[in-house]
Each structure stands twice: as C-alpha cells, then as structure tokens.
Amino acid sequence: MKIAIIGATGYGGVELLRFLQYHPFVHVQSVHSSSQEGTALSAVYPHLQQAESSMLEKIDVEQISKTSDIVFLATPPGVSSELTPRFYECGVKVIDLSGDFRIKEGHVYEQWYKRTAPPQTYLEKAVYGLSEWNRAEVNDAKIIANPGCYPTATLLGLAPLVQNGLIKEDSIVIDAKSGVSGAGRHVSLNTHFSETNENVKIYKVNEHQHIPEIEQMLLKWNEQIKPITFSTHLIPMTRGIMATIYAQAKKELSAEMLVDLYKTSYESAKFVRIRERGNYPSTKEVYGSNYCDIGIAYDERTGRITVVSVIDNLVKGAAGQAIQNLNIMMGIEEDTGLQFMPVYP
Ligand SMILES: NC(=O)C1=CN([C@@H]2O[C@H](COP(=O)(O)OP(=O)(O)OC[C@H]3O[C@@H](n4cnc5c(N)ncnc54)[C@H](OP(=O)(O)O)[C@@H]3O)[C@@H](O)[C@H]2O)C=CC1
Ligand SMILES: CC(=O)N[C@@H](CCC(=O)OP(=O)(O)O)C(=O)O
C-alpha cells in the first residue's frame, strides 16, 4: 500500500512517519509541506536521517492521486475540508487527523470551530475512527475522521458505563490534562516554555471543540445522555493525556463489578488495558505507545464512579490510532506496525 503524508513537518505527521517506516505492508511514497517544498525532511527533523521519501514535496492533489492509494492529512483545521473532497473524487482514501470531518452536522462544527464546515455530502461519507467501537464502519470507509486526542481517552473511558446505562445521564464531568505537544509544533504564546513550565493552566472552559465530538458519540451509544462538563488543562510535560471522569451510578455498584465489566467490554481490544481494582494508570505508563490504560473506582459513600483514562496524545490520540484505522481498512491485524511497549521511564 502506497501512502502520502501531508503536514509531515508537524508533530502528528512526524509521528506517522516514525511508525510507518517499519510497517511491513506500507510504503511511504511521499511527504508534503505547504511551506517547505524542496527541503529535506532531515533538515526539519535531524533525527530522521534515514527516513524514506525524505524530500518534502508540494501538495498537488492530482499528482499525489497518481502515486498513492491512501493519504494522511496531519494538518490544521480547515485544510482537510478543502483537500478531502478533491482526494475522494480522485479515488484516494483519506485518513484525516484534524477535526474537520468528525462532527456530522455542519452547523455544529461551525459553532465550535468558528470556521466553515466541509460540504455536507462529504461529511456524510466520513466515518468516525474510534477504532475499538467502529471497526465495521472503518473497514469500509473512504474517509476516516480520526478522533481527537481528548475524545479518544474520554470515550474509551466512558463507553462501558454509557452503553450499559449504568450512570445518571446528566452527571458526566470530565477533568482532562494534556502535555504541550497536544498543541502542535507551531509556536504560540500559550505553549512557550516560560508560560507552561512549573504551571498548570485551564483553557477553553466550556468552549472546547471536543465537547460536541464527545457528546455525538455518547448520544450514539445512549440517546438519553445529557450535555457533559468537560475541562481541559495544559500541564508541563511533552506527551500524554489523563482524563479523569466522574459520573453518578444509577444503582449501588462495586469496584469489582465495574472492573469486570470493563475487562469484558475490552476483551478483544489489543490496545485497551484495564487495571485491577485499586490500581490507576499514569501517563508515563503509555508514553510513546498506542495503549489506552484505564483504572476504575467506585465510592460507596457518594455512589460516584471515577474512571482514569490515559493515552499518549500523539499515538493513540493521533498517529497510532490513524495507523490502527489504516490496518482495519486494509483488513490486516490491527496492531501491525504498532507493537511497541511504552518508553519508560
Ligand atoms: N498534536 C496532537 O496531539 C494532536 C493533533 N491532532 C490534530 O492533528 C492535526 C495536526 O496536528 P499537529 O501535527 O499537532 O500540528 P502541527 O502544528 O505540529 O503540524 C501541522 C502541520 O500542518 C501543516 N500546515 C499548516 N498550514 C497548512 C496549510 N494551509 N495547508 C497544508 N498544510 C498546512 C504545517 O506544515 P507545513 O508548513 O510544512 O505545510 C504543519 O507542520 C491538527 O488538526 C490537530 O488538531 C489530533 C489529535 C492529537
Ligand atoms: C494541548 C492542546 O492545546 N491540545 C489541543 C488538542 C488539539 C486537537 O486534537 O484538536 P483537533 O480537534 O483540532 O484535532 C486543544 O486542546 O485544542
């Protein structure tokens, strides 16, 4: 399978390249840039001395369509809205890391992203690539909307509770924290070293663009679900997301029952690891890997459930899940090219 990467100079793009270099069934045909055409990728990332297809090329949809079967878009919001319909019409499949095709209703996208939505006909063709829960749709897809980093951690953490109707529908609160690479490689005041080091910042309070994405999937699983409270924090580390999720149980439960439920729900999921009772994951335990680790607690005093879900934002939250979706589309083992243990310490 020949693939092209657009946005290869960004963190998501370079992470795709790290995994795809050694993927047994994929050849990286070309890497593309909108601003550094003709530059060697190793000049942008000196750690990539031996990378395949190492010269950055311009983004020419017709040309890419002649040489690649699948294109990954690791570009900012708005770019895929324009490029994806053109690739689709040329018969090239798209795996989009941005948020452009995740929200099914254009007006909802426009409200939260504050930009024009892609054409509705193409939104309808896109499949939401939450690999563990949408395998059959991903398998047939021509456009994959790869989930956001926070939604991946949150939805994998909430799925068993919401699908089984175990929680009060208006009680979901998500307190999420991200490392700074979640904001991409481009420079900004908010991600500047002296703004983030020794600091914890809450941001986009009640306005985060991932709120409608999370609610859309929760409602697909259980149409009684009410709006969520979702808070995001920037913390001084490079990679990692921890989503700590709280919800009120509808009836008396126990931690044992919940751990058993999660283990059963994710029995066939190669990348979701459920902790034993009383054991909670930290971000370093998934660093550099495609795992999502989940710990669950039940407070008998309050009847509240706490779920702790961690991922590496650049792997399971972006490039890793994108490759997992590519594998599902190709009909090969889901973990091909992704069998890495986390980097520790
Ligand atoms: N970082 C993360 O943890 C996650 C990111 N995402 C999403 O993935 C996408 C990529 O994110 P990330 O890699 O972090 O971002 P970066 O800012 O690191 O990289 C984005 C790349 O897009 C390219 N680009 C910028 N403008 C344009 C344009 N007009 N046309 C084509 N290419 C353009 C740039 O490369 P060049 O100038 O060379 O063209 C840039 O290197 C984003 O939509 C992001 O929201 C999703 C999940 C997690
Ligand atoms: C730390 C940080 O800034 N993270 C980004 C997540 C980026 C992302 O995944 O956004 P998309 O939905 O556009 O893909 C944020 O909170 O907006």
Automatic annotation (TrEMBL):
Active-site annotation: 149
Entry's localization field: Cytoplasm
InterPro entries: AGPR, AGPR_AS, AGPR_dimerisation_dom, AGPR_type-1, NAD(P)-bd_dom_sf, Semialdehyde_DH_NAD-bd
UniProt GO molecular function: N-acetyl-gamma-glutamyl-phosphate reductase activity; NAD binding; NADP+ binding
Gene3D superfamilies: Dihydrodipicolinate Reductase, domain 2, NAD(P)-binding Rossmann-like Domain
KW Amino-acid biosynthesis (keyword) present: yes
Domain Semialdehyde dehydrogenase NAD-binding stretches: 2-141
SMART domains associated with the record: Semialdhyde_dh
GO BP term (any one): L-arginine biosynthetic process
Catalyzed reaction equations: N-acetyl-L-glutamate 5-semialdehyde + phosphate + NADP(+) = N-acetyl-L-glutamyl 5-phosphate + NADPH + H(+)
Keyword annotations of the record: Amino-acid biosynthesis, Arginine biosynthesis, Cytoplasm, NADP, Oxidoreductase
Enzyme Commission number(s): 1.2.1.38
Pathway assignment: Amino-acid biosynthesis; L-arginine biosynthesis; N(2)-acetyl-L-ornithine from L-glutamate: step 3/4
GO cellular component annotations of the record: cytoplasm
Principal subcellular localization: cytoplasm
CDD domains for this protein: AGPR_1_C, AGPR_1_N
HAMAP family with a match to the protein in the record: ArgC_type1
Biological role: Catalyzes the NADPH-dependent reduction of N-acetyl-5-glutamyl phosphate to yield N-acetyl-L-glutamate 5-semialdehyde.
Entry's family note: Belongs to the NAGSA dehydrogenase family. Type 1 subfamily.
Name the UniProt record assigns to this protein: N-acetyl-gamma-glutamyl-phosphate reductase
